[in-house]
Design brief:
The complex is a heterodimer of chains A (about 300) and B (about 425).
Chain A (H helix, E strand, L loop, with lengths): L2 E9 L4 E10 L4 E5 L6 H8 L7 E6 L2 E2 L8 E4 L11 H11 L4 H14 L15 H13 L5 E5 L7 H16 L3 E6 L11 E6 L2 E7 H8 L3 E7 L9 E9 L2 E8 L5 H10 L3 E8 L3 H16 L1
Parallel strand pairs in A: 3-8, 3-9, 6-7, 7-8
Antiparallel strand pairs in A: 1-2, 1-4, 4-5, 9-10, 11-13, 11-14, 12-13
Chain B lengths: L1 H15 L2 H26 L8 E7 L14 E5 L4 H10 L4 E8 L2 E8 L5 H23 L3 H8 L7 E5 L2 E5 L1 H35 L2 H5 L5 H44 L9 H19 L4 H29 L7 H16 L1 H6 L4 H6 L6 H8 L6 H29 L9 H9 L3
Parallel strand pairs in B: 1-2, 1-3
Antiparallel strand pairs in B: 3-4, 5-6
The chains are: A alpha/beta (about 300), B alpha/beta (about 425).
Chain lengths: ~300, ~425
């Protein structure tokens, strides 16, 4: 475990930002911190990066209580990007690296890798204000990871990126993971990082709603639904299945069906084959992160009530 | 310390490397000289700004006819007119106005009819000429000759001053002393304002761009604030040193130029400036230059640098606190007021301090760190007891340690607080809040 967050509580003057949060983040994993705007994600990140302190609770970094020196092992990309507009890209990156404890010469060496990777050689002596938004994002990302932190915290990293650059970023993040870094994604666009993350935590209204790895969460929330595309007579609900939705385009039906609880998957397949329709695809439909989020929040409400 | 140094270096280099820094450093002394030059030029040559005016004088008393002296801009011409006739004349001819002079019993009435409300200059010029005539009439009635009076009026007494010092006497000159005092005070005032506002803007930039969030995790808020304040202070000192170097470099050619001009100037003297200039001539340009050599420059410049740094740190910390408390520059107004007010007050009161450099008011104001940087500069050339200087410097040091602490407390909370502009009450709470 690189991070163990135990009973962390934080309140501001008029409201509670975090209520007794317990989380563990595995070393070398990609962790998704999900939740709507204002849920408390940024409050938690600010505590992890020592920008603010929690009211109570402990945070262990590599098993030892978080200390001010651990900051140098972290890289934080804030949601609203922070760069000096009037400084050149090069000066800026070196400055941030030096503040993170790197010497000037080492910082210059490390910068070389990223200059090639993100093809920014021609931009080094330009002022940040002359760059496009996507370009500024790249610079900010380099500033975050230049000192090769063990823990990288990315707050809404993909906003402002076009698909090509977003992919470039994803590749780099996977590369960083391969090199042993742990990455925390914080985002309210839950589907955007679903495929990247090993583990998740869902936060809503300052409370931890759900945590776990992707597979088991999806299994936990699956509703025994199947997606089926076929041609032939339109399916009707019966003793094996319940049709949740059915659309037809260009003669092909696209249907979501629920399995009746007493039956198994194989029985359903047999039943469908006997119906005389021609099946193109058949697969289990797992809920999206957003659907899971909504379900989890509803469950929590029921528990509270 | 290493962090403060890094931040300080960045603040310094980004500012000094800018082209505008070099341009402003070289241009602003020129601009200031030009600015004051124009003001002085126009105040000595008021006529330049005025158009030529013809005033028709309808004198019913007959006391003034032919005796009113024309000025550079006003020409008097005498005609007997009535009100309606004058109205027509003002419309038809290019006369500026009609001056009616009537006498009722022993009181003379002067009434100027013009197409517009006459300016103060015009009015006082006319009044002066009328007074001259009335005066000389009265003198003549009392049997006093004009030339005799002029002789009496031309008497001037000049008191030369010597300052009693431990190793004898020091020749003094109140005019030059005042000049040096004002110059130092003005520079300090100017520097504190200029660079204090830069600190504030820098803080706001870091806050609104969320740069703080990136760096605050690796540096303490106090380090960030001190790095910024010292970096900008060094920019100010650099600018000052460049100016001093420029003055030293240019003072040779310029003073010889001034000497040459001195010989030409008497012919260009205007009527108004005659008296002051004739006085100045007695001291002479050489005199002023020799007086300038009489001051203890090591002390003055040394204390200037001390009060510049002290006063700047004192106010700069407060400016940083203001910057951290708000989200944008428009919100700063409310918090700027209490900071700028004492500064403006001290430069405004400098005139009274110069008239009484060692009064108890002056002494107290040079102890209070809010006003001491400016006030001490004003008083310094007049001579201040060493004990007072030390007391004032101690107060200054205590003062800026105090404001830096105060600002640091506000800054650490403010820099990460967004949204609604805080109230004074909230700021006060921030002072004592734990992290």
């Amino acid at each position: 475990m690189i991070l163990q967050i135990e009973n962390v509580h934080k309140s501001y003057q008029n409201h509670v930002a975090l209520k007794n949060i317990n989380l563990e983040i595995e070393k070398g994993s990609i962790f998704g911190l999900l939740g709507p705007n204002g849920a408390g994600k940024t409050s938690l990140i600010r505590i992890l990066t020592s920008i603010t302190e929690s009211d109570s609770g402990t945070i262990l970094f590599n098993g030892i209580p978080l200390s001010s020196n651990d900051i140098y092992k972290m890289g934080y990309l804030p949601e609203e990007r922070g760069l000096y507009k009037k400084m050149t890209v090069k000066d800026q990156l070196l400055y941030f690296a030096e503040l993170k404890g790197l010497s000037n010469s080492i910082a210059k060496q490390k910068l070389k890798y990223w200059i090639d990777k993100f093809e920014i050689r021609n931009w080094l002596d330009k002022k940040v204000e002359e760059l496009s938004k996507g370009m500024q994002q790249k610079v900010q990302f380099i500033a975050t990871v230049l000192h090769e932190p063990e823990l990288i915290i990315l707050d809404e990293p993909f906003s402002g990126f076009d698909p090509i650059n977003a992919q470039l970023l994803v590749d780099e993040i996977l590369q960083l993971k391969q090199n042993g870094s742990t990455i925390i994604f914080s985002t309210h666009r839950m589907d955007s990082v679903e495929l990247l993350c090993d583990n998740f935590a869902l936060i809503n209204q300052s409370e931890l709603v759900l945590k776990g790895d992707l597979k088991s969460i999806k299994q936990q929330f699956k509703k025994n639904q199947f997606q089926i595309t076929y041609t032939g007579e339109t399916l009707q609900s019966d003793e094996f299945l319940k049709v949740e939705s059915d659309t037809n385009s260009d003669g092909i039906n696209n249907s979501i069906i629920s399995l009746v609880q007493t039956k198994t998957n194989n029985e359903l397949l047999m039943h469908l084959l006997n119906k005389g329709i021609s099946i193109h695809t058949f697969g289990e439909k797992l809920p999206s992160m957003e659907e899971i989020f909504i379900m989890a929040v509803q469950q929590k409400h029921i528990q509270h009530a | 310390m290493h962090k403060i140094w890094l931040i300080c270096k960045r603040e310094y280099l980004t500012r000094v490397k800018k082209k505008s820094f070099l341009v402003m450093t070289l241009l602003s002394p020129l601009l200031i000289v030009l600015f004051y030059g124009i003001i002085f030029y126009f105040s000595f040559n008021r006529d330049l700004a005025e158009e030529k005016k013809i005033i028709l004088v309808s004198d019913a008393t007959g006391l003034f006819s032919g005796k009113l002296e024309n000025t550079k801009t006003i020409t008097f011409s005498f005609e007997q007119l009535t009100d309606p006739l004058a109205k027509n004349l003002l419309k038809a001819e290019n006369a500026y106005g009609v001056l009616f002079i009537n006498q009722k019993d022993s009181i003379i009435n002067y009434d100027l009819l013009a197409n517009e409300q006459p300016g103060l200059n015009t009015l006082s010029a006319i009044e002066e000429k009328l007074e001259n005539v009335v005066k000389s009439n009265k003198l003549a009635a009392k049997g006093i000759d004009k030339t005799v009076l002029k002789e009496i009026n031309d008497t001037h007494v000049n008191v030369s001053t010597r300052k009693n010092t431990e190793d004898g006497y020091e020749k003094g000159n109140s005019g030059v002393t005042t000049m040096i005092g004002f110059l130092g005070a003005f520079l300090i005032y100017f520097f504190i304002f200029l660079y204090g506002v830069q600190v504030m803007k820098g803080v706001i930039e870091e806050k609104t761009n969320r740069i703080v969030e990136v760096i605050i995790s690796s540096v303490k808020p106090f380090q960030l604030m001190m790095g910024k304040i010292t970096g900008i202070a060094l920019v100010g000192l650099t600018q000052f040193i460049i100016w001093v170097a420029l003055v030293l470099l240019l003072s040779g050619p310029v003073s010889s130029l001034v000497m040459n001009l001195q010989h030409v100037e008497p012919s260009a003297i205007t009527a108004n400036g005659q008296e002051t200039l004739s006085q100045a001539k007695e001291i002479g340009a050489a005199g002023i230059l020799s007086e300038l050599g009489n001051f203890n420059y090591v002390l003055i410049i040394g204390l200037f640098i001390f009060y510049f740094i002290g006063g700047y740190l004192f106010y700069g910390a407060l400016f940083a606190a203001v910057g951290s408390a708000v989200d944008n520059e428009t919100d700063t107004q409310q918090f700027m007021m209490p900071i700028t007010l004492p500064l403006i007050f001290s430069i405004a009161i400098a005139q009274s301090i110069i008239n009484a450099p060692n009064s108890s008011l002056s002494v107290w104001l040079s102890m209070i760190p809010f006003s001491s940087p400016v006030i001490m500069m004003v008083r310094l050339p007049f001579g201040i007891p060493t004990s007072e200087i030390i007391a004032s410097m101690l107060c200054m040091i205590i003062g800026f340690v105090g404001t830096v602490w105060f600002a640091g407390r506000i800054y650490r909370i403010g820099i990460l607080t967004y949204g609604k502009k805080p109230t004074y009450k909230e700021l006060f709470k921030w002072l004592f809040r734990k992290n």
